[in-house]
């Protein structure tokens, strides 16, 4: 299985990078996982609705340029479906069984994801009704993907 995490912006925090690298290392036993960072648009504080849509559109174009037609796309959205770790594992296993060997998780920028990316999405996923920094979501996501593979293989992992 090939998993891409397509995300907007560069990760700056050293502690997050270290955590992500640890899980990426652990994931090599299960899948090829890559993180693709696309450039974020400058987003000043007081933007109009039209300016916000334009920022999301530009970031969305960059995101979509890294997603092939045969990829199953899961967008992280506050209004997406909430799953337990076991349910996410079951979804990943189901995709593998049905020949969907390429999965892309998409983490939008600070303004969210564009309408074009939402249209391309096969599934919207929410980790919580709370809002998390998109940089922190990378770490949470790679940990949950790792946990999912451990669950699929009935391997022990702390609960």
Automatic annotation (TrEMBL):
Main localization of the protein described in the UniProt heading: cytoplasm
Reactions that this protein is recorded to catalyse: pseudouridine(1915) in 23S rRNA + S-adenosyl-L-methionine = N(3)-methylpseudouridine(1915) in 23S rRNA + S-adenosyl-L-homocysteine + H(+)
One example GO MF annotation: rRNA (pseudouridine-N3-)-methyltransferase activity
Subcellular location(s) of the protein: Cytoplasm
Enzyme Commission number(s) of this protein: 2.1.1.177
Domain of life: Bacteria
Membership in a protein family: Belongs to the RNA methyltransferase RlmH family.
Protein name: Ribosomal RNA large subunit methyltransferase H
């Amino acid at each position: 299985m090939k998993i891409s995490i397509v995300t907007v912006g560069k990760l700056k925090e050293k502690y997050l990078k270290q955590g992500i690298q640890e899980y990426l290392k652990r994931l090599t036993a299960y899948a090829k996982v890559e993180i693709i960072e696309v450039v974020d648009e400058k987003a000043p504080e007081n933007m109009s609705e039209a300016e916000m849509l334009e920022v999301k559109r530009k970031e969305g174009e960059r995101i979509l340029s890294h997603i092939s037609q045969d990829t199953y796309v899961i967008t992280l959205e506050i209004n997406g479906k909430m799953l337990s770790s076991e349910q996410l594992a079951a979804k990943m296993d189901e995709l593998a069984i049905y020949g969907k060997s390429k999965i892309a998780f998409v983490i939008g920028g600070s303004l969210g994801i564009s309408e074009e990316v939402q249209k391309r999405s096969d599934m919207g996923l929410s980790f919580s009704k709370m809002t998390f920094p998109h940089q922190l979501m990378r770490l949470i996501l790679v940990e949950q993907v790792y946990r999912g593979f451990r669950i699929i293989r009935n391997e022990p992992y702390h609960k």
